[in-house]
Amino acid sequence: MADLSLATLVEGKPVKIEKDGKTICVTRVGEEVFAIDDTCSHSDASLSEGDVSGFKIECWLHGAEFDLRTGEALTPPAVAPLKTYGIHVDGDSVTVEI
Ligand code: FES
């Protein structure tokens, strides 16, 4: 069962979903979709409320940037990476693989 519809995922507008007890930030970049843990590794902020530019998402609280593809923390104050999840796209159906 799909978690999201590709048509509703707007580029640069991350969406927060809950799945299997996890809170995940799903972001569309072009025709690709990426999923990372929604909670910033620096403190308790929701990354889905942050700004996206290219393959980066910026935490709104203190400005740390993460790579949507790898979860790597690119700029301080965050240092720990975020977990990433696989995405399966089938037509319009987007499923986060946990
Ligand atoms: S909570 Fe995200 S950078 Fe501080």
Automatic annotation (TrEMBL):
SUPFAM superfamilies: ISP domain. Keywords: 2Fe-2S, Iron, Iron-sulfur, Metal-binding. GO terms for molecular function: 2 iron, 2 sulfur cluster binding; metal ion binding. Residues 1-96 form the Rieske domain. This is Unannotated protein. It comes from freshwater metagenome.
